[in-house]
Design goal:
The complex is a heterodimer of chains A (about 300) and B (about 325). Helix content of chain A is about 80%, strand content about 0%. With about 325 residues, chain B is mainly α. The chains are: A mainly alpha (about 300), B mainly alpha (about 325).
């Protein structure tokens, strides 16, 4: 077991390195250098040289990359913002990330506790009107982006009915609409996945055997089918959490939620790309770690995965 | 009296009984028959084709240019729908209907171009990786692993943000090119994996072995023997990816990273309309409805196409 976990963690390291390198290199694609952005076009040569030295931009690219990664690993230092008078990006992350995390987690809980039961019921009542209705709803929700659902909910629940606030992030009431806007698509994806997984399991021989030996339908489903069908669903939980974090870039913009997404999008118009770079890297790392967590969890709950690995 | 040598009049008896006749059929035709029996899929197809026609003939269908600002006519903007502007105008006095129609051009245009990029890169690399195995395969698969380790929309946001971060504002045409680059880079790994997996499976089939044994060149095996057998999964993937790219384009445009004014895009129209959600909710409603219907049509049609092409997948 421990072997399996350690192996998984070691395997994730090259991916982390590659992703951080990718983010770093993308930021270097920018048409104007950071110094140009900070000082403007009329800067003197001495000033440019001084600032390049200060930001370490005079060193070779690979050295810059190693320094950047080392800064993150050793000091949690994601570089400095251009537009906010050199405020460290890590400070902004510390401020904004809890908000995004809260939003993403509540959307995840919503998606899980609606998507999974709906998927199970749709599979159990396969080909009934309920199943068809659910699946139509799933395609609809998968097709409608959060920036359509969000504003429509705002128009109805906030502007017309005045039940909920339009935007901002104060009391729990403020979290309801953003959570639904963010979580509904994931709920639909989970429901679809859960349904097809359970349908697959219900076709298996061991289910027929369980029924044949006289187990009631309820017990067969509860003891044999559900456990096995929920396993494949675990694999997409990591991806779906990553999707929620990225989705928060859009939802935070709609509802003006002060999280990392809102901050990043604002930084884009200020061409403050250390901020975007830092926040994107953070989300990518969380995404990889979430997938790693799911991978390990999968091995822990399903011994078959571990034994396959061992072979 | 000799033997009669003239033409033999007697006709040999014919078997009048007709053979059991079956119309010639192919897997493709079977799939089309199955697809035609699906009313939802047909409805979606009609919608998609109409949208394509509307996008192509946009100038003939609109009374106003997408960037014509009819601001003198009204005391306050945005204006409600009236006789002049059937769906009203936006905050600059631009005709909403015209912008929706030209927006279809942008949405479909961007997604089609990106899908072409995806197919070109993804299919080529996937075929090579799946067929060659070894080092090429290993390297390509590690690269796609890294791309998959990144939430795709985030990568597109990052790319679009960085490309646009120059000191001068990009001209609107360049903003569309930026989208092609950002989405094109993000899109291909999925297709590469799909094609590689299929190619790996097909590689072992007898007909490929036969082709190889008879000395067919590798390029010909790849493109004349493997590729045609990969077409149906590729077509299904393309249909679903079109929906994904329409969504991605509108998301980036919504965030201000995609299509720039005066070019219209549904995502950008929704973002502009957010400010007027209290007084002019129709500004949000129209592009939202169109976007949702379009993506839904592609998704429904893609699902139906998959079921039709691969009946085993049917659930």
């Amino acid at each position: 077991m421990l072997n399996f976990i350690v192996k998984r963690i070691i395997l994730a390291i090259p991916t982390l390195i590659a992703v951080s390198f990718l983010v770093f290199m993308i930021a270097r694609l920018a048409p104007s250098s950071p110094v140009e952005i900070i000082l403007g076009e009329k800067a003197t040569k001495e000033n440019v040289a001084r600032l390049e030295k200060e930001y370490g931009l005079d060193k070779p690219l690979l050295v810059q990359y190693v320094n950047y990664v080392w800064g993150i690993v050793a000091h949690g230092d994601f570089g400095k913002s251009f537009s906010r008078g050199g405020q460290p990006v890590s400070e902004m992350i510390r401020q904004d990330f809890p908000v995004t995390a809260q939003l993403a987690i509540s959307a995840f809980i919503l998606a899980f506790f609606i998507g999974i039961p709906v998927g199970i019921l749709a599979a159990l009542f396969h080909n009934s009107w309920f199943d068809r209705l659910c699946m139509a709803g799933v395609v609809a929700l998968v097709s409608v982006p959060s920036f359509v659902i969000g504003p429509l909910m705002v128009i109805y629940f906030a502007v017309r009915l005045r039940w909920l606030p339009v935007s901002g992030w104060d009391s729990p009431a403020y979290t309801i609409l953003p959570t639904i806007a963010l979580g509904s698509r994931s709920a639909a994806i989970l429901a679809r996945f859960m349904r097809s997984s359970l349908l697959d399991v219900l076709k298996q021989d061991y289910i027929r055997t369980a029924m044949a030996k006289g187990l009631s339908k309820g017990r067969t489903i509860w003891r044999h089918a559900l456990k096995n069908s929920i396993l494949p669903v675990l694999t997409i939980l990591g991806t779906s959490f990553g999707g929620l974090l990225t989705g928060s870039f859009v939802v935070e913009t709609i509802f003006q939620v002060p999280g990392i997404g809102y901050e990043s999008i604002n930084s884009i118009s200020k061409r403050d790309y250390p901020v975007i770079q830092g926040m994107a890297l953070l989300v990518a790392i969380i995404f990889i770690l979430a997938n790693l967590g799911v991978d390990i969890l999968y091995g822990v709950v399903d011994p078959r995965v571990r034994s396959q690995e061992a072979q | 009296m000799g033997i009669q040598t003239g033409p033999i009049d007697a006709v040999p008896p014919k078997f009048e009984e007709p053979l059991i006749s079956q119309p010639s059929t192919s897997p493709g035709r079977d799939a089309m028959i199955r697809l035609r029996k699906n009313p939802v899929a047909m409805l979606c197809l009609v919608y998609i084709i109409s949208l394509i026609l509307i996008a192509i003939f946009a100038p003939l269908l609109t009374h106003y240019d997408y960037d014509f600002q009819d601001s003198n006519r009204y005391a306050s903007l945005p204006a409600k729908p009236d006789h002049f502007h059937r769906l009203g105008t936006d905050n600059l006095g631009q005709d909403v209907l015209s912008r929706l129609i030209y927006g279809a051009r942008v949405s479909l245009g961007v997604s089609v171009v990106v899908v072409i990029i995806e197919v070109f890169i993804g299919v080529t690399l996937g075929l090579i990786a799946g067929f060659r195995s070894g080092m090429t395969d290993l390297v390509l698969m590690r690269v796609t692993d890294v791309m998959f380790a990144f939430p795709d929309l985030l990568l597109a946001i990052l790319l679009a943000a960085v490309i646009r971060s120059g000191s001068q504002a990009l001209p609107p045409v360049t903003s569309v090119l930026t989208l092609f680059v950002a989405l094109g880079i993000v899109g291909w790994p999925g297709m590469t994996r799909l094609v590689r997996g299929q190619a790996l499976a097909l590689r072992e089939k007898e007909y490929i072995e036969a082709a190889r044994a008879t000395g067919v060149r590798e390029k010909n095996i790849l493109f004349k023997h493997l590729l045609p057998n990969l077409l149906s999964p590729i077509i299904v993937q393309v249909t679903q990816d079109l929906a994904g790219y329409i969504l991605a384009e509108s998301t980036l445009s919504f965030l201000g990273l995609g299509v720039q004014p005066p070019f219209p895009s549904w995502g950008q129209m929704i973002n502009n309309a957010l400010e007027y959600k209290d007084s002019q909710p129709q500004l949000i409603l129209f592009p939202s409805l169109l976007l949702a219907l379009t993506v839904m049509s592609f998704n429904f049609f893609g699902d139906a196409l998959r079921d039709a092409l691969d009946p085993r997948m049917r659930k």
